[in-house]
Design a protein that fits this description.
There is one protein chain. By secondary structure, the chain is α+β, with helices and mostly antiparallel strands. Helices cover about 20% and strands about 35% of the residues. It has eleven helices and 36 strands. Strands 1, 5, 6, 8, 14, 15, 16 and 18 form an eight-stranded antiparallel beta sheet that branches. α9 runs antiparallel to α10. Mean pLDDT is about 90; it is low at about 1-30.
């Protein structure tokens, strides 16, 4: 009956352990050497084992008490006198309840493998110790607590191994924080068990042990003793959500019915970034939207579609809109103890990723055309992931790399941001009023059709400038080739409220476009942006449109350039008359001598110049 109760208790402990492993993130420890000794001679050469003391010794050698000693740079003992046990322990090393830790030592089995050899991987006194007992081709892991032998209550207590006489073996024992014990011989894991209560209380250390039993002799030598803390890694409890879930997988993603056909248009196909964001938000205890509905990929998609700038171009999630959501939803999520999730982007920086994991922050990792959540790292620097589409759990499935890192950081700070989005191939720069460069630009590729072919559209260029000061800024667009562009300029105040401005034009080798911006950190409605248009930029636009054949007829190019250069030298009244005549000309020639794109750019230029006179 007592055995049955003990087995039930061990079973319950195991169940609790596994539940904790699923629910809680593991702790992180910086691996460091806590103790080591290679038994080289002391400075004076007198006592190379001066750091060790004998705890107990009932062993004899040829009828006399035997002792631990150093020979040839190894510390050991010879026994020849019947059944006995002896331990030696460091005289000044205390584990101080350090957990987890690894105990490693080189053991030389001198003589027959049928003799007893031992280690003490945790030691308090002769009535409280753990350690493997080596004999023949294997070992038994022994556990003694309070003078009672609990060895046979371990779920697994022995292992086989083909030892050879007069060989040296590297023995490493890991005592893990989850009460599992692993033993490695020469680098190979050959034993693992779970250690249920009771446990040794109070101060403990490590030790070396020797014994003899039915075979009265034993000889064993030890070298390179080392104790290190264990970096167990991190596994954050990020819920796994799938874009393919039928609860939301069939919903129309963004406006994919406009840019995806004939491809599928659902969250199932395009929702990797959306679903990754939902996982991260739920991890941070934001499980409700501002209207108190449940936050999941389906409801999050609907919320973004109803926000100005919720999605960028063709289906790209606007991460800054999600930062705004975190602040708006604060009142509905009492378990979220911060004001908001502040968004920051980093490149493919694994060190930043490791730092975030150490701070209990999962990151959204960008792969080519796909997004996943990075949630953990083990002691061998292997990253674990939640993949919203594929059945993958390791970053090794993506060659252990990523293009960028999306960081949602719990914060009490402000959400102000300047973000600019333009077409690929356009260089974008932002400067402060003092002409200092600000922000960072990058190319953002489209989403891939998960499980199919094709993608969501074209690559775009994005500039991020987090937490800008209120003041004046200038935005410059340029290109090595003449190229049309569309611009979306997002100006978020500290509360995450958005002022969205748009622009369009053409830039080229000698044709740049500048936008002036007045940014108000406290009130986005007070932020303003205007395109800087002069007669010189108007003439540059005509040249660029001629080079792209948006002005189709070379003769019409010459006429427009002649009129613009001539008007530049006239008085304001005459300038206005010439510009009005040019506006009538391009209106008549729209669709004939020039494309609609050229008409839009030139009419914008002309109308601005007329109003400025």
């Amino acid at each position: 009956m007592n055995k049955l109760i003990a087995l039930k208790f061990v079973f319950v402990v195991l169940i609790v352990f596994f539940i904790k492993a699923l629910v809680l993130p593991s702790s992180t420890f910086a691996s460091q050497i806590l103790f080591q000794d290679n038994f080289d001679a002391d400075v004076d050469g007198s006592n190379p084992a001066s750091g060790w003391i004998t705890s107990r010794n009932s062993c004899l050698y040829n009828g006399l008490p035997t002792k631990w000693e150093v020979q040839n740079g190894k510390y050991g003992i010879k026994i020849n006198g019947g059944s006995c046990v002896t331990e030696t322990i460091p005289n000044s090393f205390n584990l101080n309840n350090i957990n987890p830790y690894s105990y490693e030592v080189d053991m030389t089995f001198t003589g027959s493998i049928n003799e007893d050899r031992n280690l003490v991987v945790k030691y308090k006194d002769p009535s409280n110790w753990y350690g493997p007992h080596f004999i023949n081709n294997g070992f038994t892991f022994q556990k003694v607590v309070g003078g009672i032998d609990y060895t046979f209550q371990l779920p697994n207590h022995n292992a086989s191994y083909a030892f050879n006489a007069d060989q040296t073996y590297n023995i490493k024992t890991n005592l893990n924080s989850d009460h599992t014990i692993d033993i490695f011989i020469n680098g190979s894991k050959i034993f693992s068990t779970f250690d249920p209560p009771p446990y040794i209380s109070g101060e403990t250390t490590i030790g070396l042990q020797a014994s003899a039993g039915s075979i009265p002799t034993s000889e064993v030598w030890f070298d390179n003793v080392k104790v290190t803390s264990i970096d167990e890694g991190i596994d954050l409890n990020v819920p796994l959500l799938k874009q393919t879930n039928p609860l939301w997988g069939g919903f129309l993603y963004d406006s994919a019915d406009q840019w995806a056909p004939p491809q599928p248009t659902s969250i199932y196909t395009w929702g990797c970034a959306l679903t990754s964001a939902a996982m991260v938000f739920q991890y941070h205890k934001i499980t409700k939207l501002p209207d108190n509905s449940n936050l999941n990929p389906g409801t999050l998609n609907a919320w973004l579609k109803n926000q100005p700038g919720g999605y960028i171009r063709n289906g790209l999630v606007n991460w800054l809109a999600l930062a705004r959501l975190s602040k708006l939803a604060k009142a509905e999520n009492s378990d979220f103890t911060y004001d908001a999730l502040e968004y920051k982007r980093a490149g493919g920086d694994q060190n930043q990723f490791k730092t975030d994991l150490g701070n209990n922050i999962p990151d959204i990792l960008e792969e080519p055309g796909h997004f996943i959540v990075g949630k953990g790292i083990d002691s061998n620097d292997h990253f674990t992931i939640n993949d919203p589409y594929y059945p993958r759990s390791s970053l090794a499935d993506y060659s252990n790399s990523f293009l960028s890192l999306g960081r949602f950081i719990p914060s009490h700070s402000d959400l102000s941001y300047i973000m600019a989005v333009v077409d690929d191939g356009i260089s974008i720069g932002l400067k402060t009023a003092s002409k200092s460069a600000a922000g960072e630009s990058f190319s953002q590729g489209p989403l891939s059709n998960d499980g199919g072919s094709g993608n969501s559209g074209d690559t775009v260029k994005i500039l991020y400038f987090p937490q800008p000061d209120s003041g004046n800024y200038s935005l410059n667009l340029s290109s090595e080739l003449s190229k049309n562009y569309k611009l979306e300029l997002y100006m978020y105040d500290e509360n995450g409220n958005l002022k969205l401005a748009t622009g369009s034009g053409i830039v080229g080798p000698s044709d740049t476009d500048d936008y002036s911006m007045s940014f108000n950190k406290s009130n986005s409605n007070a932020s303003l942006s205007t395109k800087s248009i002069t007669f010189d930029s108007f003439i540059d636009d005509i040249n660029s449109l001629c080079s792209t054949s948006d002005i189709k007829k070379p003769l019409f190019c010459k006429i427009l350039l002649f009129e613009a250069n001539g008007a530049k030298k006239l008085s304001s009244r005459l300038k206005k008359l010439v510009l009005k005549a040019m506006l009538a000309e391009i209106t008549f020639e729209n669709g004939r001598a020039l494309t609609d794109n050229a008409f839009q750019i030139l009419s914008q230029d002309i109308n601005f110049l007329i109003l400025s006179l």
